[in-house]
Amino acid sequence: MTSFDGQTILITGAATGIGRATARKLADLGARLVIVDLDGDGAVAAAASLPGDARGYRCDVRSDADVDALRAVVLAECGGVDVLVNNAAKPPVTGPLADTDIEVWRDALDVNVLGYVRMIRAFLPHMVARGTGRIVNTASGLALLPDPPTRFMGPYIASKGAQLAMSYAFAHALEDTGVTLSVFCPGLTATSDRPGGPPPAGVGAPTLDDFRRGVPARRARPATADHAAQTFVDGLLSGEFLTCSQEGYHSDLVDFASANLDPYSIVRQAQAEAA
C-alpha cells in the first residue's frame, strides 16, 4: 500500500512538462489522476498514457464557467479530489519589461494567480466538508532567488511571487480544517516543450547568453523534468510546506537574506564564483 493508493489527484497544466512527469510518478504510486489542461486533446492523451484510472479534461482556468464545469464533472465522476495541484502557467519569457503590453501582465495574473484561486474555490469546500485534503501551488525558484533573467520575465515573476505570498495566507486560513497547503518551486528545468531555455529568438528577443549573464553557474544548468517531478513527489510524501528542485537553494536563500534581499547581490555572487 503506497501513500497515494485510492487517492484522486488533480493536476492543472499537466499535458506536458513537469506536470505530466509528476502525473506519471503519482500514477505509478497508485493515485488516480485527473489531468487538466487548456489543451484538451493533450490532457486526454496524457491521461491515456498513464497506468490505472486516469482522466483528461480541457479547462481554461481563466474562465469561471470552465472551472465550474470541471468541478461538476470531477465531483460526479470521481467523488471529489484528495490532492489539488495548481500547476498551469503562462509561458515565462515576455521580453523587456518596458515593452511588455499591459494585457500580457493581466493574462499572466489571470492564469497564475486568479486561476489558482478559482481552482481552490472550486475544490476546497468539498475537502473542508470531509476534513481532509491537500493543495499544492506551483510557484518558481525565481520567486525565492530572483536571478537576473527576471528582467525578461516581469509578468511571470510577479505572478509567481504573488502565488507564494497567497499560499502563506491560505496556509494560515486552513489551520484546523484538516486541509493542508504547500508550495512547489521548480528551478530551471528542461522540458520537452521548452528545453532549458527561452523560446526561439525573434526581433529584439533575449538570447540564451542574455539569460545566462549574471546567474550563478549551478543555477544556469537545467535539471530534467523527471528530477523536478521526483523532488515534488518527495516533498508531497514528507509533508513539507515548501519544496524546491533548485540545487543548493537552502544555502543560497541564507546568503540572499543576509544581503537584505538585494537582487544585485546575486550578480555579485555569480561574479565572485566565476573569478
From TrEMBL:
Family to which this protein belongs: Belongs to the short-chain dehydrogenases/reductases (SDR) family.
Any GO MF annotation of the entry: oxidoreductase activity
UniProt name for this protein: Oxidoreductase
Coiled coil: none
Pfam families in UniProt: adh_short
Keywords, in A-Z order: Oxidoreductase
